[in-house]
Amino acid sequence: xxFKENILIPQWKKEFNNLxxxxxxxxxxxxxxxxxxxxxxxxxxxxxxxxxxxxxIPSNTIxxxxxxxxxxxxxxxxxxxxRGAYSLDGAQDGDACITDxxxxxxxxxxxxxxxxxxxxxxxxxxAAIHSGWRGAKENIAAKTIKKIxxxxxxxxNIYAAVGPGIRDCCYKVGIDVIKYFENDNYSEFIRKNDGxxxxxLQSVVCRQIILSGVKKENIDNYGECNSCSTKIEFFSCRxxxxxxxxxxxxxxxxx
Length: 255
Ligand SMILES: [Zn+2]
Fold this sequence. Notes:
It is a single chain. By secondary structure, the chain is an alpha+beta fold. The protein has a single domain (2-165, 202-254), classed as CNF1/YfiH-like putative cysteine hydrolases, CATH 3.60.140.10. The chain has 6 helices and 15 strands. The strands form 3 sheets. A 6-stranded mixed β-sheet has the order 1-2-3-15-7-4, with no helix packed on it. A hairpin with a 2-residue loop joins β1 and β2 (7-9). It starts with a strand and ends with a strand. The model has no long low-confidence stretch (mean pLDDT 97). Zinc ion binds at residues 167, 169-170, 225, 227-228.
């Protein structure tokens, strides 16, 4: 990925001039609707406006869901654009959003979960996904790709970006979580150490995207864990604590 103006940008973005997409860093402050903004003096609304000014787009064209660790994929058009742009008031429940319309910035927030951006180049379909272990268990990534196909897209035309998220270095989980991933598709992403289990959730979600038919060479995977990354420091629930942590944004849209 490229790193410009404190935003991580997928390598493949340079092929598409009117596409705006990336992953924010803590420079932009808290981007999560449900979290308190503490690292900047700005409010959530001011953080979102600051991001939209940086991207040179109107802030009221942001769509941002109330994330509930579900497998709900929301379709966005002129009827619901702007919902969740500045606050939870009016935000729709869901953990992925998709659009085939222009001038809409889909935005999901993430700390230790896995953020994914999808772009179908022929029909100009964009999608943003937030996948924690519950989302991965329900395979929200595959469900979002299925929606892209339903509205006319093709798997082979999809570009994917997997942002910084939690890996087995930092993600200790119980057997209640591991049991969903102990199968042929994901067992290589489970590490056992001293009777404890660690899950590489980033690789699980990346595998789900490949199994959904997206070409490997079309996937830009950041690869580093957000919790222990040293190159760039990210907000992390595990690192910053459950009370204090804030969220970054993964965003995508055509303008
Ligand atoms: Zn780590």
